[in-house]
Amino acid sequence: MLNKLQIKEVLSTIGEMFPDAHCELNHKNPFELVIAVALSAQCTDVLVNKVTKSLFEKYQIPQDYLNVSLEELQNDIRSIGLFRNKAKNIQKLSEMILNDFDGEVPKTREELVSLPGVGRKTANVVMSVAFNIPAIAVDTHVERVSKRLAICRWKDSVLEVEETLMNKVPKVEWGVTHHRLIFFGRYHCKAQRPQCETCPLLSICREGKKRMKAKK
Predict the structure, then answer these.
(1) CATH architecture label of 30-131
(2) Which one of 76, 139, 156, 168 is the catalytic residue?
(3) What predicted TM-score, i.e. pTM, was given to this entire model?
């Protein structure tokens, strides 16, 4: 596993590759971000942004989602995977935000994960992006990159990956680290066709070395 200095150099290199890494889910406020991240489970950000373009025009506050039938909301997000379950969760979390949190999206992880359809990853995204509270959300990209680059161990769970990153990266850099790892995984170190040949981190990447060796 890489030490803190090596991880700092890795993240600096990724930062040079993707200086504008950011949350790609379109939103105007914390509530819209909660909805967008909830919709993004097992779905691409590109598709979510297509759906939320009209969705956020029709539904602007929690009460709006409760003013329609479940069937109508399902129809509005039908192109997204698991739309039936996601529609139920959106109505339930909207009701909870109104009744339990005075209409405002809560800021703590404990409160956020109490909302239907909101897991630890979603909570961390909302905390970091909407409220600028240091957090690292581990999605498939972050997990894959962290393991390929030996920041974490192959056998580590998602929570262990998060804890390792939190321990090895300065707290003030958690938010930007999350976005940089996502961009690196989404646009360069892809799951199926990673760009190992042109990767500036190939010399320390165990997965990349293995792939390049297999090609010879």
Answers:
(1) Orthogonal Bundle (1.10)
(2) 139
(3) 0.91
